[in-house]
Structure formats: structure tokens, C-alpha cells
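Standup notes
- DV: blocked on the single-chain target, sequence here:
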Amino acid sequence: MTYCVGIKLKDGMIFASDTRTNAGVDNISTFRKMYQFGVEGERFLVLLTAGNLATSQAVFSKLNIAIDQGQERNLHNMPTVFDCAQLIGESVRDTVTHAQNVAQNNNTNFTSSFILGGQIKDQPPEIFMIYPEGNCVRTTDDTSFFQLGESKYGKPILDRSLSYESSLQEALRATLISFDSTIRSNLSVGMPIDLLVYKNDSLAMPNGKRIDENDPYFASLRQQWAEGLKEILHGFEASPESYWE
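- DV (later): unblocked, structure below
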């Protein structure tokens, strides 16, 4: 399984993904699920994925080949981020259809979903969720983040703590806590975490960071979170007697 998050804020965007893939309890591997595209000073794009690994890698390969060969339509020359999302959607749909036709088995799950985020010069930053069918939806000020994969454990953290007006620091902490909660509750999601923070209008290609179990900030954050939860629970007023009847 997978857990990925893309968040759009007034000051920037945050993207994070785990790296665990598994084909059974005895076949667990580490694969990157976050990829950057773009041209420094002109456009920044990041793509996250969840679902069938072979499908995801085929889509990434097609997108890279289109750029390397200078094809008429590629992620480095599409006019808007929406057009980039449409191009990716076409590639996803074609890849899934081809795999199903070759396998001659529509019961096999070849699908993958994607989160695309980025900014093109003189345009606003955008984040899109791209579905296996090829269609997509964008974030809004009211719905400022998307998740892929094993989202249910981290979603309550983000729902309660995030809004479009949140600072990058606040959103970064909430993102890491959502990953800690997910990793603790689901063995199919695991370290390391790939993290990328983008500041709006910078049009820079961030280096990003890979966070492992030994990262001191993440270790401190998850310890403070665990201790803080216990302290809050212990600090609640006693329940009424009627609750015990």
C-alpha cells in the first residue's frame, strides 16, 4: 500500500510520500513514489503515485521519454498545470488499457492514481488528483489537500489542523504527524518518507528530503505527539456518573 499527501497553502505547497511497496507479507521493498519535473525559473512540477507499481513506473517512463525526445506534448512544454494533468491522465488510461488487453483479464488491478502539483511562470500554483480513468480534480481554498492510498489514519489529523491559511511550518508538522499515525496503524505504509516543500512563485526545483527512522526532528515530533495525546487524555474532566450506569 501507499500513503501520499499534496497540500496547497497560501504561501506554498507540501508533498510527501512513503516508500514501502508490498506484494505479500514476505515481499516488501522500497520504491520512490515522488518524482520531480520542470525547468528552473520557468516551471516546477511534482508527481506522487499510489497503486500498481508497474503501471506507475510505465507512466513515469513515458513522461520522461517524451521530455528526452522533445515530443510535441510533454511536461516541459504544456501551457498550464491543468494541461499537464490531462497529459498524465491520458498516459495513465492508455497504460492501464494496454495492460488489461495484454493480460486478457479485467479482474486484475492494474490501476494507479496520481497527485500532480506545481506552478508555471505567471500562473498560480495548482494541485490535481488524477484518477485511473484519466480524469482529474483540483484543490480549492476549502479543500486544500489531497491524499492517496492508506489515507484514513492521517486524514483526521489534516482535517482538524489544516486550512488554506495555515503556515508552511504548521502544515509540515501536521503532515509528518499524519504519516506517523498512518505508519503506526498500518504495516503496509513505512519509512523512509520523501518530503518536498515548495514556496509559491519561487519556480525553484527544491532538493527535497528523505526522512528515515533516525531523523532527529521526526523522532522528536512523534514523541511529543504521543506524550501530548496522553497528557490531554489525562487532563479531561471526569465523566459523569450516568456514563457508568
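- Follow-up: The mean pLDDT is 93.
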